[in-house]
Amino acid sequence: MSSAAPAHTFADPEARLDALADLSQRLLAAARARGASQAEVSCSEETGLNVNVRMGEVETVEATRDRGIAVTVYFGQRKGSASTADLRDESLEATVEQACAIARYTEDDSAAGLADAALMATDLREFDTWHPWLIDADRAVELALACEAAGRAADARIENSDGASIGTGASLGVYANSHGFVGRERSTQHSLGCALIAGRGDGMQRDGWYSSALAAEDLESAASVGRRAGERTVARLAPRQIPTGEYPVLYAAESARSLIGHLLGAVSGGALYRRASFLVDSVGSALFPSWFQLDEQPFLPRGFRSTAFDAEGVATRESSLVRAGVLQRYVLGSYSARKLGLQTTANAGGVHNLQVAANAGDFDSLLRDMGRGLLVTELMGQGVNAVTGDYSRGAAGFWVENGEIQYPVDGITIAGNLRNMFAAIEAVGSDVDYRSHVRTGSILVGRMTVAGESAED
To answer: What residues does the Metalloprotease TldD/E C-terminal domain cover (predicted)?
Structure first.
């Protein structure tokens, strides 16, 4: 049997990173030769394998390999960008020339330019994010089929399936700029998921489960993912309506991170300098209860977004976004920071692992604490007004009485205002969902409007 790496992995990642780093220097030199006062280059290569099966049959097997080269140049405070996936010399030269041409015809922008040289990262560590999965297509199909089979066998009422999937990917990246910064990163990510359908006709319900990790050994087993998908699906059969009213709402962990996502959108630089956020001028304001804590942790081993530098080469750092309920800072890259008269928070490209501190026990204890109310396990729609904070989303989940789940519910809408919802958070559970760079347990909001059946019903 051959020991060669599968086609969807990198045979020599270090050599490829060296090649990308060399390429970045060539492109920077070409930009300088054309008169650019500053320049930056991002080079990336990605490879992967994705397998989908349904009803015991293979639907797709796809191997992927992608490349991207992006060049940005500055002539003073005029900016131009261009990109290519072609490594031929003539294509690379044309890409630099195109970026320079765009910059020459662009108006000055006082916020344009590289991040300050003094902020560049110097401690370029890795964070245990490189774990290629040496799985071939046959083995991936076998695991996906086993996952779906375990789910379909979980209950006789599961008569159909939306399928099971296996995904594995590896990415290499180099960011370099004319400050002399060169940053190299490599990471992997793997997933295993299953979606099932139970019941018949109008009574059909769909649900599923998935596992995601940077290392294959951290994935849940295929059988476990399938069984959990099956259990979640049959639990949703025979849903009922609930009366419209105001109730406590417990967001299950996988839904709770959406609340943090809305916060991030509102405190991100682009929304703030455009005055398109309900949290404009809110740093120093108490938005959450006094016990609430939200920390950015870019140095977590095997963290989904662990990194020593952001998309501009700025050194990342551990810091609080919310401490003692008070918003400590915004989420800024250098451009949005300059527009706001502030300094970058090393968040060009996004946040790097957020941890919501728990103040309560596990999921069952949160149900007991809520007593009576709505457990939300799925959200639908995009009904959030970023300017006002008004919130209205379709939801499904379970009705809870006396601290115990009673029956499934769907076809409901939950509504409120995010500012009020943040202030009304009563508990964050210890049941953390680790499948995302936003790590939070379930979140209990003390009171929200729930629109169920009308009085006429």
So the answer is: 244-452
Residue 180 zone, left/alpha/beta (φ > 0; ψ -120 to 50; rest): left
Torsion over CA: 148, 151, 157, 161 (sign)? negative
Gyration radius (Cα) of the chain, Å: 25
CA distance linking residue 445 with residue 439, whole number of Å: 18
Q: Average model confidence (pLDDT) for the chain? A: 95
CB 330 within 8 A of CB 277: no
CB 412 within 8 A of CB 380: no
Question: Average of pLDDT values for 220-224?
Answer: 98
For the segment(s) 13-233, the CATH number from 2.170.270.10, 3.40.50.2000, 3.40.50.880, 3.30.2290.10 is 3.30.2290.10
Whose structure tokens read 């030769």? 33
Sheet of strand 78-84: strand arrangement:
78-84, 57-75, 38-54, 158-177, 182-198, 205-213
Q: Is 319 within 8 Å of 293 (Cβ atoms)?
A: no
- The answer to whether residue 6 scores a pLDDT higher than 80 is no
Q: Flag whether pLDDT at 457 surpasses 70.
A: no
The CB-based long-range contact list for 136-143 (8 Å cut-off, 24+ gap) reads 136/6, 137/49, 137/51, 137/61, 137/63, 140/49, 140/51, 140/61, 140/166, 140/168, 141/51, 141/53, 141/58, 141/61, 141/166, 143/192, 143/222
